[in-house]
Amino acid sequence: MTWSQLGLQKKACAFLNVEGYYDALLAMSERAAEDGFIRPEHRELLLVDTDPERIIEKLQSYEVPYVPKWVDRKER
């Protein structure tokens, strides 16, 4: 995820969230975006689904958007 944020690669990160296993991690990433620690666009690099076939489809079709690397204080 960090490499995609920095523009070193163009890939997303996928979580197969079986029985809510990753719910706490995903909530933390949402909070980080809300509090300005990461851009909301970078939070969207985390693809989530409960179905293996759908998560693979999401990975195959996802395109990483260009977003500036740093959060400017004026944006907060």
Strand order of the largest sheet: 1-2
What's the SSE pattern? HEHHEH
Shape: flat
Which band does the percent of strand residues land in? 5-15%
Let me know the largest β-sheet.
2 strands, parallel
Number of domains: 1
Number of helices: 4
Distance between the termini: 22 Å
Helicity range of the residues?
40-55%
Any idea of the CATH class? Alpha Beta
**Tally of DSSP β-strands:** 2
What kind of assembly state do the chains in view correspond to? single chain
Mean pLDDT: 86
Look at the helices and sheets and give the structural class.
alpha+beta
Cα Rg: 13 Å
Query: What name does the CATH topology carry?
Result: Rossmann fold
Q: Give the low-pLDDT segments.
A: none
CATH architecture: 3-Layer(aba) Sandwich
Structure description:
It is a single chain. With 76 residues, the chain is α+β, with helices and mostly antiparallel strands. The chain has one domain (2-67): Rossmann fold (3-Layer(aba) Sandwich). The chain has four helices and two strands; from the N terminus they run H-E-H-H-E-H. It has helices spanning 2-6, 23-34, 40-43, 52-61, and strands spanning 13-16, 46-49. It has a two-stranded parallel ribbon. The longest helix is centred in the middle third of the chain and has 12 residues, at 23-34. It is flat, with a radius of gyration of 13 Å. The model has no long low-confidence stretch (mean pLDDT 86).
